[in-house]
Each structure stands twice: as structure tokens, then as C-alpha cells.
Amino acid sequence: MTTQAQKTGGTPTGGDSHAVVIGASMAGLLAARVLADYFDRVTIVERDELPDGPLARRGVPQGRHVHSVLAKGDRIMERLFPGLFQTLLQEGAELIDLANDMSWHHFGVTKLKFASGVGMYTLSRPFLEWHVRKRLADCPNVRLFDQCKVLGFATNSDRTRITGIDIRLDNAICQDDRQGRDEALKADLVVDASGRSSRTPQWLEELGYAKPRESVINVNVGYATRFYRRPPGADNEWRVLLVYPTPPAEKRLGVIFPVEENRWMATLAGWVGDHPPDDEQGYLEFARSLSTLDFYTAVKDAEPLGPIVTHKFPSNLRRHYENLDQFPEGLVVLGDALCSFNPVYGQGMTTAAMAASILGECLERQRKSGEDSTAMTRRFRKMSNKAVDAAWMIAASEDFRYPAVGRAPLSTNLINRYFHRVHELGSCDPEVHRRFLQVMTMIKPASTIFHPKVIWRVLTSRLPEKFNKEQKHVYSETPQTF
Ligand SMILES: Cc1cc2nc3c(=O)[nH]c(=O)nc-3n(C[C@H](O)[C@H](O)[C@H](O)COP(=O)(O)OP(=O)(O)OC[C@H]3O[C@@H](n4cnc5c(N)ncnc54)[C@H](O)[C@@H]3O)c2cc1C
User: Fold this and answer.
1) Distance 47 CA to ligand 1 centre (A)
2) What percent of the chain has pLDDT over 70?
């Protein structure tokens, strides 16, 4: 039997194939751009009122904190929106070299400065999202309804296929008697990009399916962020500052990013309950307690441009849809709704971009082979799970350095010991550090850092004596308490 959903994987042909995306944050916007090449119409439904500018909003509270796009993620975004990053640079974003332009203190050493060729754009999260949203508005077959809350899935009579979504119309554009009413929106494919608090597990259960198994690693991370005016001459020694801890004894980190409008975004964070406070004195005390004084020295006399805002992040959370035996046709889950990582590693938007790209691959294959949509969504679940795996391995392994997170498997302890040495060698071995940066930004596979040459250097190299002395000098200036 050929269902309507089975006909969907083609080029828009003037027919009426329709995909719906729940959530207009980064995962939803990127997925919508991909879907626009395969469906006649794409509708994004977003609960929030979307601002016409680079402003933070309620549904994405994390947007008020430092967000880095890893190189793999910006490559995908650039492919989906050619020229996007050129525009971002013209409007105030910056491109930095992750070794040359960054002062990065981690595991008790400061990383070497050299031209690594591994770049990163620095910008605020609302600024990125707003630009992506504007570019998506250029796609003639994509429409976005904000202030519309998705209430659940609509299905066919035997509940084997998702046929759309039920929505609440709160949108001001519905200035007719439909405002405030619940309606159904029919779709051939529904993409859940509604973030960590996705209701898909509950909605599936209500339809008689099993909920996906969840992997949870409690990290209890707290963030506190403040904007400062970027002081004149601030770039003399670094453009980005990272002061990271040596776990498990140290739990605190500080990051300063240059962002648009000549501002610094200064974020403090702490693992396993050691959270930075939101009052001025507490914030500075926390800054002063980091493993070097660089963050504190930078912000103590800088001009604040707003209040200190905080955010708490409980756990890495992964939903294993790939393992479900029964799954309805016509549904895809991606972004934080699929896997939400400890934000300290900056992987969320990049894995969302990778999932959007994988969705494109699956739809392309469906178009070419004519396979049905059940096979397409099954393939997507498997491939997106694999993509999430690499990022999950990094986040989960690193977090297990803190005993309060839980007992790590033996393999994790071995990997962590290896990476501890890799981090230390980042202070004196450019080749090891370059490879690490390539893996960290996901542009090269993990095997890059497990190459026999690197393993040999990790096992045999010693940190130069001179360097150790310099580091001790830094430590001696660092107060243990405020
Ligand atoms: C403090 C913090 C810092 C972070 N830093 C980084 C970083 O440096 N780099 C990085 O790559 N990632 C970072 N992340 C993660 C990143 O923010 C997310 O991975 C990214 O936003 C992609 O998420 P998403 O689009 O899947 O979901 P979200 O961003 O959570 O968006 C979900 C959207 O769905 C909407 N929605 C929810 N329910 C409904 C509904 N029922 N109906 C309609 N709409 C709905 C919401 O309003 C929202 O717009 C960080 C996260 C946190 C918490």
C-alpha cells in the first residue's frame, strides 16, 4: 500500500508534501532548511514569540551564556546557508585560531600558541539564531508560526503513523476567531526539535508505544554570565580566554569570548554543585578562585553591561530511540530532544547540525531508491545515534573525572588518563595539540588522536623543565581562597 507519507522523499514538485518541525531553535531551523529541499511545504511551529533581533528568549534560556560553534558545525551551517559566516563576520562576529588567539589553561598547563589552522567563530547565541532565522525566511516554501504550542501528535486510526500535530494557536497573526483554539496541522513528516524537555517520550507512551530508554549522567553544572564592554587593548595577549580546572580537585572554569557590539561575554561555571553566584562580589570571588588569575584580572576593572545571569544544567541526557522495536512512521527526533550534552564541551549545536545533515542524507537516499518512509526514519535513527556517540563519549568520559558524577567504567578511566597527558602535551607539542583540536571540533575522527605517533609521544614525552617552572610561578600567584 502506498501511503501519503511514502511519497514524501522527493524534490518539491508543486505537489503538497508537507513537513512540520516542532521548535524554532538551532536544531529546528537547520532541519527545516534541509527539509525545504525535499518537501513542497515546511512549517516550523514555535511556542515562543520570536524577537526581531539578536535577543535572548524564554524558550532558550541558555542563549544568555557563552556558546561556541565547533568547526564541524559551522561547516555544515555554511553549506546549508552559503555566505552565512561572512555575514556574521561583517556584523560583528570574530574568527579566531584556537591555538594562536586563545589563552587556554587546563590541567595545570597553558596551551602552546601557534597557528593551528583550527578556527572558531565567536558570537552570541541569539545573534547566530537570529541570522539563521533570517536566512531561512528566504526559503519560499518554509513558513514559521511562533506563539503556537504543540500539544501532541495526530495519528492514523491504528496509530502506526504520525499524521501531524495538534497545536494551540496563540499567534497574533491568527487575528480571527481561531486564536486560542486547538487545531490539527497535517504533515507527512514531523520533526521533533523541541529541546531537552521534548514531550515525545510521553506522547509515544500515550499512543501505546514504549518510551525510549534514557542514559543520564548527573553533572549538576551551574553557569553565571555577564557582558562587559571590551576594554581598549584587550587583545594584546589573547582574544579568547579559557581557564579550566584540573579535576577532580578543581571544579571551576571561566571563559571570556569576544562577541558582537565590541562586548565580552564572560561565563563562569562549576561542576557537581560548585556553582558561581549571581551577585557581583560572589561572582568576582569565584573568578578569583579559578586556577589562574587571568579571568579575574580581565573583568575586575571592566565595565559591566548588564546583570549576572545564571543557569543550572542537571545532567547529560540521551534518549535511545534507536533501540525501540516499535516506532511510528513519519517521525524524527533530533537536537537536544535526542541528546543534551554537558554544555561545557560546546557540542549541542554541532551535533544538531550533524543530525540535520544526516536527515538530508536519508531523504536523498529515499528520493533515489524510492524506499518507504519507515525505512528512511529507521536509517535516520541509526545514523544520528552514531553521530551522537562520538560527542557523548567526550562529554561522558570527561565528566567521570569527578567521583560525584558516578563510577566510571575502566575503559573511561584509561581514556581519561590518556587525555590528561594529551592536555599536558598541548603546552609543548604543537602536533599533538593540533590533532586534539581537530578531534575536539569534530572535523577529524577520534582515531586522529590515537594515531601510533601520538600514542608514542603521549607515552614517552616529558614536559620541558623550563615550562614546569613557569607554570609553578603562575600557581604561586593563585590564591587558594579569596
Ligand atoms: C548553559 C548552556 C550553554 C551551552 N553552550 C553551548 C555551546 O557553547 N555550544 C553548543 O553547540 N551548544 C551549547 N549548548 C547547547 C545548545 O544550546 C543546544 O544544543 C542547541 O540550542 C540546540 O538545541 P535544540 O534546538 O535542540 O533545542 P533548544 O535550543 O532547547 O530549543 C527548543 C525549541 O523548541 C521550542 N519548544 C519546546 N516545546 C515546544 C512545544 N511544545 N511547541 C512549540 N515549540 C516548542 C522552544 O521554545 C525552543 O525554541 C549550551 C546549552 C546550555 C544549557
Assistant:
1) 13
2) 91
